[in-house]
Design brief:
homodimer, alpha/beta, Nucleotidyltransferase, domain 5, six-stranded mixed beta sheet, 14 strands, about 35% helix
């Protein structure tokens, strides 16, 4: 029989929600994954959501991370400035309701360029805490908004958000390339050709139009167009990192996308390292242990 | 009273249509602008459209340019390969119906990268024919798909399509920046700041996320976000031309957008030259004169 839950961890994103009942030793004893992301929940409906989670998992404290703490979520947990450690996050949680804490995101506020993250930080620091990634490392978190994150001695020091996944999704659904990008996306000749083109291009908004021109001029097979375009986008993304040569890149949370980024990192001379799943719950557990 | 029409010129695009009744000396004697672009017309409805134009303008020959000659239009007029002159376009028209000719587009078929245009070529060659631009020049045609076009001695030799306008439209309507880019877009401090950022960035998909981060961290005014994002996109577009220094750039057909591109060209060291309206009808008239 599963052990008793000590608290409920919630990874509460824009469109999805993952909730975990966690024992005091960090063991996940029960999980729930659904589409109750912040876009589908009215602000005054969160207390009922918490009650439902406690009915399911037990009347335990809740720790939530992600967009639930944004201006579009339940209640705003102001960003912690980089460099950000687990301890600083733990000390800056917002109590949204009795025994419900929301973990803040991380901001680059005053530097050359602004950037923000919310949810990714706990995954990175969780991997470091769990020992599945070094304390000083370069991370890549592929997804709708890919994050390149640098850590030094267990602190997030700088990061860059790249809208690679969103661009692919917008282009596939709307605009001139819609209907041309419905084929499969996986590693193979078309993906690699797109990757090399994206790395060399320096002009994403022009290189993507080559997908249409290539189809019209029979230089690109219709079934290969999606993989090629994905290669162009991921290639342009990794090519803006001129510091990958000879360096491990820790890939985190990207599912099947991580395999494509691994190919791209290798192409740029880096060494991809796929970090095992479980980093987010490891991070939340470290945070709970600090605050418990 | 207006002179008698010798033929009907139609600039038949994806969403819009402009039709002109033109006298034998090239004078436009009547015009019609409507939303009867190729997306709104079934393939078998074109003969009726032609009849309606002739009812309006007189039973004259028709010369049509643009997407009407694409695979999504009425009947495909295969691309002419670059280098493309007016004479080659005139010799490659497709007769879609009695006395209805469709002008082909231009393709880069076999070079390092594929590209296509359909409609822009007649505007460029028309400006040259009319003497409002030199025969050897660099052109920029801002719009949904901006074209950078090089001509040598009156022939289109090479060109690049950049999806700058489409990116702006997609981002404004869908995705994470939707709702943040509804402010005015015009030259001013925010546009220029975005322009400089776009020129310096080298990573469009990251720099555009700074719009969101800048708003969240109070580094960007909500009312300035659209102009800033437009600056980023146009800056990234012009920055991929490293050959603008000291060079005239002939801006064509971009309407209000041309003024923003003129600022960007100047920022890159080039000399913007706004080409007067009327280039498309001048090009069609030159073509009619060759074939008449």
């Amino acid at each position: 029989m599963a052990g008793r839950a000590a608290y409920i961890a919630v990874d509460w994103g824009t469109t999805n929600r993952r909730a975990y009942a966690v024992a005091s030793d960090g063991t996940v004893v029960d999980t729930l994954t659904d589409g109750r992301g912040v876009l589908s929940i009215a602000r005054d409906a969160y207390p009922a959501e918490i009650s439902a989670l406690r009915t399911r998992f037990g009347a335990e404290p809740v720790i939530a991370v992600g967009m639930v703490g944004s201006s579009r979520g339940w209640c705003e947990a102001p960003y912690v400035d980089a460099p950000a450690t687990l301890e600083r996050l733990a000390g800056s949680c917002r109590e949204a309701a009795p025994d419900v804490r929301i973990v803040p995101g991380v901001a680059l506020r005053d530097g050359r360029r602004p950037d923000v993250m919310r949810g990714e930080e706990i995954q990175i620091l969780g991997a470091i805490h769990a020992g599945t990634a070094p304390a000083t490392a370069l991370f890549c978190q592929p997804g709708t908004h890919n994050k390149w994150v640098e850590t030094v001695d267990g602190a997030i020091t700088t990061f860059t958000t790249v809208m690679t996944g969103e661009f692919f999704s917008l282009l596939r659904t709307h605009g001139i390339l819609a209907g041309m990008l419905d084929g499969p996306v996986s590693d193979g000749a078309a993906f690699r050709r797109g990757l090399r083109r994206g790395i060399a291009s320096g002009n994403l908004a022009a290189t993507l139009f080559e997908v249409r021109a290539g189809l019209l001029l029979d230089r690109l097979e219709p079934a290969a167009a999606a993989a090629y375009a994905s290669g162009v986008l991921i290639g342009a993304d990794v090519a803006t990192r001129d510091d990958l040569g000879g360096r491990p890149v820790h890939l985190l949370g990207g599912g099947a996308l991580s395999a494509l980024y691994a190919v791209a990192v290798t192409e740029m001379g880096g060494t991809p390292v796929i970090v095992p799943d479980g980093a987010t719950t490891a991070g939340i557990h470290a945070l709970w242990s600090l605050n418990a």
